[in-house]
Amino acid sequence: MELRDYVRILHKSWVLILACLLAGLGVAALYSLVVSPKYEASTELYVSVRSGDSAATGDLVQGTNFARQAVTSYVDVVDSAIVLDRVIEKLGLDTTSDELAEQVEATSPLNTVLIEIVVTDDDPELAAEIANAVGDNFADVVVNDLEKPEGEVASLVKIETIQPATVPAAASSPNVPLNLVLGALVGLALGIGIAVLRSVLDTRIHSLHDISQITDKPLLGGIALDPDARTRPLIVHADPRNPRAESFRSLRTNLQFVNIEGGPRSFVVSSAGPGEGKSTTTANLAISLAETGASVALIDGDLRLPKVAEYLSIEGGVGLTDVLIGRAELADVLQKWGRGRLFVLPSGRVPPNPSELLGSAAMATLLATLTERFDYVLIDAPPLLLVTDAAVVSKLAGGAILVAASGSTKKQELAGAVRALEAIGSRLLGIVVTMLPTKGPDSYGYGNYTYGMTHDLDEVFDTADTRERARRRA
């Protein structure tokens, strides 16, 4: 993924990331409140080698070097049982040397003869007592046991306390600021990780950017999500000033500039799967094209689950199928809709062989007649991945337009629909993304009805041409 992909993920999932950040802070704060405070007390010892008053300089240097070498071994003696057992006995502690050793830590700075003993305990006073007791008993064990020569000769090793342990005034742990910082960092990392993982695993289309990763075909437009789309599907007619209606007008403008190389301006509108808004998109696009004064023929080519007649509130019992089988004339079933030059051809009765009808010579003749008489012909076709109807009729039209629903259509489904069109040589003109959110990184920044009327086909076209000439003169 590119940098902009990560920025988009962060923008899109900022609520999740913030929640994880706050959760990390909460866990860190709760831990800091629940855990028992610990206190550290430390004492510092100085290790040296005894020498007489007349000791030469070389003897002093040799003794210092010996002390430095011995200190590294003495550090391991501090928390040994021979020292800690005496501490336990002296202070009357109810513990074992192994348990006490976990509270004691001894270190020595490099190239020094100093030993620092740090004791951690829940009780600050007891921590100081243990630290001093460990230092005293350690010195006694080393001087009088481990480094004592045979006989009555005194040990040459001398260990003195140069900094006794004092009662600590504040707890060393928990370190609340540090815990909060670590909790915030862990929560932030977890939130970003979940956001990136969710984005990688999510194969649905969410934006126009996702479309560009699947196909290089132009993005004709993005239609905003409308929760009331089912109750008012014809938003261009019902609420012309609505931002969603403007989205269809932008789609109309882009479609007008699509270069079809002199071919017929007939377009098949389909989708990869059902429920992606292809029928509402086709109907609103037809209405918006008719608003410009262009003559538009809208064909309901979904002979399996027709919706255009329902959306436009016209009679759909007789229509395309009747024309294709020769049962009715085109002029008798073509219905004028609204005040513009929009004519609708409903699907008619659902046939047993939709694919055969849509790919027949009669369908080719019908489309040739309509494209000759109308400025635009729009065909609402079934989903490409379910049936072959859309692919078949797209061969007869000037091109196909694919509709994909943001947050619903999967990338592999759209890619499959694109391949289905390319496999039969149909021309994909572009993609329309529907149901785009109005906010966030994925956002895409009624006239008179005529019911059941029939028209003589030549009269329909002549009337439309007369009105167009009158409009141009005005």
In terms of topology, how is this protein built?
Elements: H1 3-12, H2 14-34, E1 39-49, H3 57-78, H4 81-91, H5 97-101, E2 104-107, E3 114-121, H6 124-146, E4 157-163, H7 176-201, H8 208-212, E5 219-224, H9 235-238, H10 243-256, E6 266-271, H11 278-291, E7 296-300, H12 308-312, H13 320-324, H14 330-333, E8 335-337, E9 342-345, H15 354-358, H16 361-373, E10 376-380, H17 389-394, E11 399-405, H18 411-423, E12 428-436, H19 457-473
Parallel strand pairs: 5-12, 6-10, 6-11, 7-9, 7-10, 11-12
Antiparallel strand pairs: 1-3, 1-4, 2-3, 8-9
Helix pairs in contact: 2-7, 4-6, 10-11
Describe this structure in words.
This protein is of the alpha/beta class. 47% of the residues lie in helices and 16% in strands. It has 19 helices and 12 strands. The chain is rod-shaped.
